[in-house]
Amino acid sequence: MPSKKSKRKRAERPTIHPKNKYADNPPDFALLASLYPSFTPFVWYTGDGRARIDWTDFNATRELTRVLLLHDHGLNWWIPDGQLCPTVPNRSNYIHWIQDLVSSDIIPKNNTNEKIVRGFDIGTGTNCIYPLLGASLLGWSFVGSDVTDIAVDWAERNVKSNPHVAELIEIRRVQCCHGTLSVEGSHCRESGNGESKVDKSGSVTDEAKPSPSPSFTLKTDLNRNYSGPPVLLGVVRDGEKFDFCMCNPPFFDSMEEAGLNPKTSCGGTPEEMVCPGGENAFISRIIEDSVVLKETFRWYTSMVGRKIILKFLTSKLREMGVTVVKTTEFVQGQTCRWGLAWSFVPPARKIVFPHATEKSNLSFTLEGLQRQFGAIHVLQSIESFFRTFGASCVMNTCLFTVNITASYDQCNAVLKNEATYLKEDASFNTMENISCGSSPHFSLNSLSFQISVFQQIPGTLLVKASLQLRDSTVSGMFSLMVQQLEEILRHKFCKSKAGSN
Ligand code: SAH
């Protein structure tokens, strides 16, 4: 059972983009049931009169999506049984994040006179949800691509059912080279791709995707290459220009990995959910294609299902010479998804890495500390962890602080460490280089930050991190470094290791 504290923490986390139609007005099941008789049989009422639907019933979730698209967006929509059923509030979050990106001045606006924002939805699915939402909410035009006949046929059908936006949307079939679309299984199973739903009370519940595994249990092979049909290269035509691409990728390496969540049902066929190498391989292919296509797109974006993959891909992007990387977190009930965006357009102002303009003070708590560990152990562990990667560390045992200075390469090494720290010896390093009050040396090319450890109550520590030099060229790596540290400390010291974040 989650503690009051963790419930509070979750409640404080942003769950919905402020521009999202449902941010202040979550779907009202009772109202929808009264307006749409086809939805009525799926709604039931709790003892205190609250309207609910059965999330384990695919027909109920599909009907909810249908009536929401009709009622709130004026869209006619349907998908065949078993196909991935999107949730409108969550899909809208991604659209609004892209809206922020394309309207921001991080990279210069297009010089062309094109007034309409043009997007490319990689893998639009039978549901064609992103083009339909983007066109109806914001008047954007889209190319929506897909590889399967059923997706292309139904996406086209969904577009044609909406003459007011049909002109804005082109569905493009990706030619599938023989033998390249190899996915496990052949029939629909009731499983989802990790969505969450906002219920009438505004709380978000997880759809079928299993919670992202904490990085220390993940066995994903980060080196597997994508071997499927073309993604962007070979699909984008000569001379075409887009403001952005977006993608809700097939997240899993196999249907077994996708798993089944008996609590929810949002459909999802192997073709929609699985690709060899999973999301890492698929998004890596988008990155590789983007290196060739460069400024054909102002922004390349993708959803990412797991934090470890986000970190891996962010590092990969840096190596590819992109000019800007941005990330965001989409909190969805107990699971999180991330948005990853990058560009090859030279930035208008100097923001290179994610979070560069974000907080210079971050903190997290370590709860449920194992009895034998105290603040000093955590402090020593922080010092020895960063030292392992060659960072310079000055520990102050009087103030319970460690000052860390790490070069760009050392930061990268820390961020790529997800797999290796598991093998680290659990014993603590001896107290070396301990001083009381050395003054740190800052450099514009390195990341300098101070970590302080405070005892809150027995068994709970507060760890604070403060960035020493915001203008450093690598300051954008600060929050990733702190996230990484949090995971490592949780894994090493806390009884309940899954509570990361
Ligand atoms: N965008 C929809 C569907 C996502 S499921 C949504 O958010 O609900 C992923 C989709 O990607 C599937 O429809 C699958 O057929 C498609 N897909 C897989 N490989 C692809 C490729 N190489 N190019 C285009 N689409 C692809």
Automatic annotation (TrEMBL):
Signal sequence, start to end: none
A GO molecular function held by the record: methyltransferase activity
Enzyme Commission code(s) on record: 2.1.1.-
Domain of life: Eukaryota
GO-annotated biological processes: rRNA base methylation
Compositionally biased spans, kind Basic and acidic residues: 186-200
Cellular component, GO, one term: nucleus
Biased composition (Basic residues): 1-20
Residue span of region Disordered: 1-22, 186-220
Sites where the protein binds S-adenosyl-L-methionine: 91, 123, 146, 248
InterPro entries for this protein: METTL16/PsiM, METTL16/RlmF, SAM-dependent_MTases_sf
Keyword Ribosomal protein on entry: no
Pfam families the UniProt entry points to: Methyltransf_10
Keywords for this protein: Methyltransferase, S-adenosyl-L-methionine, Transferase
Family assignment from sequence similarity: Belongs to the methyltransferase superfamily. METTL16/RlmF family.
Name of this protein: U6 small nuclear RNA (adenine-(43)-N(6))-methyltransferase
